[in-house]
Amino acid sequence: MSKLSFAIPSKGRLKEQTEQWLAELGFPVSQIGGERGYQAEIAGLGDVEMRLLSASEIARGLIEGSLHIGVTGEDLLHDFAPDGASEFRIVRQLGFGGADVIVAVPQAWLDVDTMADLEAAGAAFRKLHHRRLRVATKYMRLTRRFFAAKSVGEYRLVESAGATEAAPTTGAADVIVDITSTGATLKANGLKILDDGVILKSQASLALSPAADWSDEAQASCLRLLERLEPNASPNAKNLLNTFLTHV
């Protein structure tokens, strides 16, 4: 993987906003093969392998090292990284694609407002129903880490394949961990966010992979982008890149 491998979202509002951001930096992206194509070209960065992928694929590629750089959600990076934030580098939060990863319970649970309340409720629930509270989520690692940090152990995870916010209503789970922008969907489904239940305030971010094979060619292309992002740091852009690529 000699040339820079750079991935951006393949569709939707996130793709449009990312392309607009790059164009404003002076690196316009043109899609190859029309709207259904998954390859693209980017001007101004040299010979770059430009890919259009889903946000999930980009996060996985950065963590595994099959991509050098990409734009994806911080929530996905944190959740897909087995060892946490040491497996990727956030270069720049982009100010769009914002959503919070939260813990929500039924509004009818009047005495459950915090994670400590949830642990107490879980103990009582297990004693009464002879099973643990079920927590539906697509964010398995993030949930485990957060619940452990909050000393909550009376639960079991249920991987959500559909609309997570509907899980308590359908009986598939008792509690959810999901993303929300306004909270309106949660409220419509009779759910409330715990007072200390915001796991992560996520947004679209430009991230680098420390695990990728960084050739001189790939570094040179990346430096052009870093210099445009940090014009005042241009003389030391090489040091900046090395800082990003250094393992913790």
Automatic annotation (TrEMBL):
One of its GO terms (cellular component) is cytoplasm. Residues 55-229 form the ATP phosphoribosyltransferase catalytic domain. The keyword Transport does not apply. InterPro entries: ATP_PRibTrfase_cat, ATP_PRibTrfase_CS, ATP_PRibTrfase_HisG. Its EC number is 2.4.2.17. One of its GO terms (biological process) is L-histidine biosynthetic process. Keywords: Amino-acid biosynthesis, Glycosyltransferase, Histidine biosynthesis, Transferase. It catalyses: 1-(5-phospho-beta-D-ribosyl)-ATP + diphosphate = 5-phospho-alpha-D-ribose 1-diphosphate + ATP. Gene3D superfamilies: Periplasmic binding protein-like II. It is an enzyme of class 2 (transferase). SUPFAM superfamilies: Periplasmic binding protein-like II. Catalyzes the condensation of ATP and 5-phosphoribose 1-diphosphate to form N'-(5'-phosphoribosyl)-ATP (PR-ATP). Has a crucial role in the pathway because the rate of histidine biosynthesis seems to be controlled primarily by regulation of HisG enzymatic activity. This is ATP phosphoribosyltransferase.
